[in-house]
Amino acid sequence: MFERPALVWLLLASPLLAWPGIRALRSGQVLAGLGSTLARLFCFWAVVLTLAGLRIPVHGSADRMTLVVALDQSRSIAPDQEAWMMRQVTELRRSLDPRDQLAVVGFSRDSQIFAPPENPRITNVRELPLDTGATDLSSALATASGLFAEKNEKRILLLTDGNETHGSALDLASSLSDQGIRVYTSAPPSSALQRVAITSFESPSVVRAGSSFALRLDIESEATQPAQAVIRLFADDNPAGAQQITLQPGINRFRLPYHVAKTGAYLMKATVSVTAPLIALNPSAEAPVSVIAPPRVLMISGNPAESLVQLLKMRGYTVDMAAPRGLPRRPEDYLAYQTVIIANVPAEALGTAAQEALNRYVGDLGGGLIVVGDSLKDSGFHDGPLEKALPIKFVPQPPPPSREPIAVYLLVDRSNSMSYNSRFAAVRDGERIRYAKQAAIALLNQLDDTDYAGVIAFDSEPYVLGHLRQLGPERRDLVGRVERLEPGGGTDFKLSVETARDEILSSGIAVRQIFLLTDGDTNRQYHDHDKLLADLAKQGVPVSTIRIGPDLENLRLLQDFAQITGGTFYRVEDITKLPQLLVHLTHEAQNFKLRQSTRVETGSSSAVLSGLDLGKIPPIDFFAVTEPKDGSEVPLTAHKGAQTAPLLVSWQYELGRSAIFSGDPDSIGSVGWLRWDHYAEFWSQLVSWVAREGDSGPFTLRAQGGAGGALEITAEKADNLPVMNLFCRITGPKHASDIALTPNGPSLYRGESAPLPRGKYTISLMIKEGDSERLLSRREIATVGVESADAAELKLKPTNIALLQTLAHQTGGAFDATLQSTITPAGGIVTTWRPIDNLLIPLAMLMLLADVFIRRQILAS
Questions:
Q1: Do the Cβ atoms of 553 and 369 come closer than 8 Å?
Q2: What is the phi/psi pair of residue 666, to 5°?
Q3: How do 829-835 and 55-61 pair as beta strands?
Q4: Coil, strand or helix: which one is 273?
């Protein structure tokens, strides 16, 4: 309406011009004063409106048409699609009436006029350089809207895929409509170049060392048929694997399993390689991952599961032990640990106060809890605080299965070599024979009175300490004879094995076992035992061989004795564990028949079992019977005859997670699991899955890439107690900065860094108190830096039809209209804005003369 609207503010001076007339009104000259005031005001208003350039709309029929074609020149447009758009321009030049006007605008991140409005027959399209790394439709529409002749019908033909990465075209729709500009939209057909692009590559921001995780990769293919490609994975530019894949038309989603053993920060990169005729538009992408230390674990047990403790330590976990009595009663006291494991602890020993603290540690503070072994058989936990946090209900246990007597024959090496220290052969302190005797006594003491046992001590000759008889009346004497054993002589166990075999066969007992304890030294050759081995295998008498110490003599002979006869071979380097091992092997013999009917089935999918061969999960002989709660996951179920019970159960309990494993990791019934190749991986994944997020301590520290390469820092406190002066220090090559973290909730603190270059950094969470600093946690991170300017353009996306349709509808145009309907005039009304200076200037002069007349002829008299 105004060419210079700022000058309209001069109207605020109107009261000053009206003052003479107002003074006349106050002196009693009403009509003259009123006339003078109106004349002066009308004169002043006419002058101001003239200076401001007042224009009025004039509606009329359009004489001709001006068509502006906007061509998308961004990188998301393929060369054959650009050629299609230029063909549309050529067709318009031929089809438009010569009296109409045709203009061409090219756009991507910015816009350029390729051809000004002119006769379409002489239009010369000159392509000018553009930054093709983005798509800004609003810039194209704004440039096009300034090219129209006022009296012509106004149309824009927008040729694009509609995937704008800058600006918002819809924000201009209302303004274009008010100007009478109709927008016609059309998208080029799909490219025939069969382009391929990585559209997304993501990794978890934080994972724990020793655990497996999945990288998510999305690849878009414009090919019309399945095509072969190769994915390659890199960690810090070092090859980390490759995979041949088949790309289907459209979006292809892949999960790439990966395992990181060491803590630190890594820049993961995925690449895709294709062969002609495919073209890789965006062949690589990066994602950062921060690998933190394995969880810190607290094991609560009066009898710790040693195998579990050792494998967790082997995987880098820190494992602390605590007796069940005297545990902390505050949930916060467990925040030093990500996971708490309760193994073989009765309810009475744990106590209600500790159970309540552990319940709140999981529920309120997001801790992890695992219960294993005999604890799950104690119905004293039923309806207690601990049961509330667990995914199962405690139920009364079925009576143990009855069994028939077994026959066990124990052969103990008492030769001179058994008197050597297992670490220093020159020191004769009797260490091997001492532990061998302890193992034999432990075995005899744990057998039932109805079982049959025999013991032979051998050097170069066998010495029968007790023939195979029912153990009840013989136990005490037999234990005494074993205790009095002394080393001496050579080594020959062949006759001892034959004696034990003959007595076992004579007993007729079906469940039987010979245990051979020796350091492996023997006076005989390997093949002297061939017939004996064949006979034992044929007669069904298993021989389990236990090699004491690290020596390598006759290793193959002992292994073959076990393998050929159906026994078990163990090489015991830590001989202090020999008694416990022998007891376990005896349990295995006791439950030989029952074990044949035991099996484990997989159920619901679980991250705990990720990457494991589910078809090779071993059976387990002993397990507690529990009842899973609603909402829990049961990935593993154990079956033993008519008895069925969940073996692994997990769930989310409020803020934390908990799980149970109904077997005892150190029970002989779990021997199959101890031998399983993935035993350590199973337990490390279970512990990591339940583990509380973040580092040990009260804070969970997170860092993720923000806009423009900045780093968004979040520190979440486990409780709601506020802290002051919380900072995050970021250090790296040639970089150091402190970011103040401000409260963003009862327990949430946030901060944001300046943009960081691609690379690796260390972030440290701390509290500053005056000149002192208190470190709370620290970790290494990586960042990919500022995203490249054309990153969005390198991702194949389908045409944004919804945007193109909406834009056309809101401006009165059409989507994907025919060429003829696009150029056919609608005979519409066009609006032009005309100045009215020719009226305002005479009005101002007339009002000025009227004011002069009134003041001189009337007011002066």
A1: no
A2: -100, 5
A3: antiparallel
A4: strand
* Exposure on the CB side of residue 469, measured as CA atoms within 13 A: 12
Which carries the bigger pLDDT value, residue 513 or residue 104? 104
In 598-753, which ranges are E strands? 598-602, 626-628, 633-640, 643-653, 656-661, 699-705, 711-717, 726-732, 735-740, 742-743, 748-752
CA 109/CA 135 separation, integer angstroms: 5
69 contacts 185 by C-beta, under 8 angstroms: no
pLDDT in tens, 473-529: 888 899 999 998 888 888 888 999 999 999 999 998 888 889 898 877 777 888 888
DSSP-derived pairing of the beta strands 264-274 and 227-235: antiparallel
- Domains in the chain: ranges and CATH: 5-54+836-859 (no CATH), 60-184+799-833 (3.40.50.410), 195-290 (2.60.40.10), 296-400+599-690 (3.40.50.880), 406-590 (3.40.50.410), 699-783 (2.60.40.10)
The CA distance from 693 to 747, in Å, is 15
Residues whose CB falls within 8 Å of the CB of residue 83, separated by 6 or more in sequence, listed in order: none
Mean local confidence (pLDDT), 270-298? 90
pLDDT level of residue 381 (50, 70, 90 thresholds)? very high
Virtual CA dihedral for 178, 181, 182, 183, nearest 10 degrees? -110
Rg, C-alpha atoms of the chain: 44
**Residue 11 CA to chain centroid, in angstroms?**
65
Residue 314 parent element (H or E)? helix 306-314
Please identify which residue in the block is written with the tokens 């906007």.
70
Task: Check the CA dihedral 172-177-182-188 and report its sign.
Answer: positive
CA 570 – CA 579 distance, rounded (Å): 13
Task: Look up residue 259 and give its two tokens.
Answer: 């395992």
Of 129, 211, 328, the closest CA to residue 609 belongs to 211
Q: What is the mean pLDDT of the chain?
A: 86
pLDDT of 321-334, one tens digit each?
Answer: 999 988 999 999 99
Residue-wise pLDDT for 805-844, tens only, equals 999 999 999 999 998 889 887 766 656 667 778 888 888 8
CB 777 within 8 A of CB 694: yes
- pTM (predicted TM-score): 0.56
What are the C-alpha distances in Å from 169 to residues 406, 494, 797, 819?
A: 86, 93, 18, 23
pLDDT tens track for 532-579: 999 999 998 989 888 876 656 667 888 888 889 888 777 765 555 555
Q: Which amino acid is at 229?
A: A
Give the E-state strand segments of 160-263 in sequence order: 181-186, 195-202, 206-208, 212-221, 227-235, 238-247, 250-259
Question: DSSP code of 618?
Answer: P
CA angle 774/775/779 to nearest 5° reads: 165
Neighbours of 232 (CB within 10 A): 16
Q: Name the pairing type of β-strands 65-72 and 101-107.
A: parallel
DSSP-based three-state secondary structure for 658? strand
362 pLDDT more than 50: yes
CA nearest neighbour of 780 among 730, 708, 709: 730
